[in-house]
Design goal:
The protein has 90 residues and is mainly alpha-helical. The protein has one domain. Helices cover 40% and strands 9% of the residues. A two-stranded parallel sheet has the order 1-2. α2 links the parallel β1 and β2. It starts with 5 loop residues before the first helix and ends in a 15-residue tail after the last helix. 12% of the residues are buried.
Length: 90
């Protein structure tokens, strides 16, 4: 199986996927729209919150970073984000 087919295959067996790459950098609108096109209606995404906000800023002054993160999903009309994972903060 080609890596480009992994998400579609995953969506045949599960109804949600964690997006780990968003921890390292915010995906582009084109990337998110590509993901949405590969999954059925009702599939949910759980993007990891940016490490910039969770580990570097330690959730201090989250307004700008959180707004940028959430606006990406709204711009792509992805209202299927049910959660986000920030991991442990120390």
């Amino acid at each position: 199986m080609k890596p480009a087919d992994y998400l579609s295959f995953h969506a045949q067996h599960f109804s949600i996927a964690e997006i780990n790459s968003s921890f390292y950098s915010l995906p582009t609108i084109e990337t998110v729209l590509n993901w949405v096109d590969k999954v059925p209606q009702g599939f949910k995404f759980c993007p990891k919150m940016s490490r910039y906000l969770t580990h570097m800023k330690k959730l201090n002054d989250p307004e700008d970073s959180l707004q940028r993160f959430l606006m990406l999903w709204l711009q792509c009309k992805v209202y299927r984000v049910r959660c986000w994972y920030s991991g442990p903060i120390w």
